[in-house]
Inverse folding.
């Protein structure tokens, strides 16, 4: 197979992290645009918030600040809720088959 034929038939799938970031940014822009109808804004908000676990795992919000005060407050509340929901998982005992190294 020639390189030209290969490149014409091969389509790389977007990586989940890149897709999550692109979705979040697009939805945030819709949410902040005053011309966006309310029903579209609510849908965009739901899609944006659905990306938070991936973006949090990547450390996006440790690197970047959201300048819009309302969006920043919404994200802070949602990220705090994710932390609260994850806290019981951290406290769980390890799986019986796992070895835990103790100091």
């Amino acid at each position: 197979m020639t390189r030209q034929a290969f490149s014409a038939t091969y389509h790389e799938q977007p990586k989940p992290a890149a897709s999550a970031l692109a979705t979040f940014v697009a939805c945030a822009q819709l949410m902040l645009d005053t011309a966006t109808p309310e029903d579209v804004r609510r849908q965009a908000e739901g899609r944006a918030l659905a990306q938070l676990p991936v973006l949090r795992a990547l450390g996006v919000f440790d690197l970047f600040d959201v300048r819009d005060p309302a969006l920043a407050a919404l994200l802070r509340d949602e990220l705090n809720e994710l932390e609260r929901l994850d806290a019981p998982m951290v406290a769980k005992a390890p799986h019986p088959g796992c070895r835990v190294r103790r100091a």
